Amino acid sequence: MEKKRTEARPKSAPSRDRGRETRRRLIEATARLSEERSGAEVSVAEIAKAAGAFPNQVTYYFGSKDSLLVHAAFLGLLHDARRIERIGRQAADPVAFRRNIARAVLAMPSLPSVAQALAAGVSRPELAPVVDRHLQLLFRQSERFMGRLLGSRGWRTRRPLNVETRTFWSTALGAVLLVRAGANGTATDLDLAGTLTVHDAPEHGRSSLPHS
């Protein structure tokens, strides 16, 4: 009996590994196709072909195509956010940081897909927890980046870092949703840089150290 249990273990581990690999390929293929199509519709058959998978594996691993689209949209957003961090680290001063970060975020190719994911979270309650998990990951990643940057540069923010990052991303994502909903205007109508309070000295002699 003991021998049978020992022999069964190697079979289950490769199976789990294959499952994780298939999920990864499906998410990455969906993110790539969505970016290439600028948020336009992508079929399950196209996703499966690009991922080297079967169409029924989309529902097997994610429950629905919409759930897969949410995962893929936020994967693209997190990748874009890492590129934005590199831009932020190159800024010479807080003014350049605020300006460059805002411009880069509004030009991120993942934003149309993320707007669709947010809308899906509203229209389909079962997807809301998936959206929330990804948003929390984005907030934490941004907060860690800001904390490290401020610490290395001696810069400050006028509010806690968790509020700073949530305010910034909520404004950016809200602007995209407005455009997707048909609101007139362009990125130049939005003062996204104004939502950042990064500065290089405490005001009025008060300490405003970043909060972790």
Characterization of this structure:
With 212 residues, the protein is mainly α. It is built from eight helices and no strands. Helix 6 (111-123) crosses helix 7. The N and C termini lie far apart (52 Å). Residues 1-9 and 204-212 have low confidence and may be disordered.
Topology:
Layout: H1 2-36, H2 44-51, H3 56-62, H4 65-89, H5 94-106, H6 111-123, H7 128-153, H8 161-180
Helix pairs in contact: 1-2, 1-3, 1-4, 4-5, 4-6, 4-7, 6-7, 6-8, 7-8
Q: Give the low-pLDDT segments.
A: 1-9, 204-212
β-strand number: 0
Radius of gyration: 21 Å
The major sheet is characterized as: none
**Overall pLDDT metric:** 85
Concise overview:
By secondary structure, this protein is mainly α. The model is unreliable at 1-9 and 204-212 (pLDDT under 50).
What key attributes describe this structure?
single chain, 212 residues, 69% helix, disordered N terminus, disordered C terminus
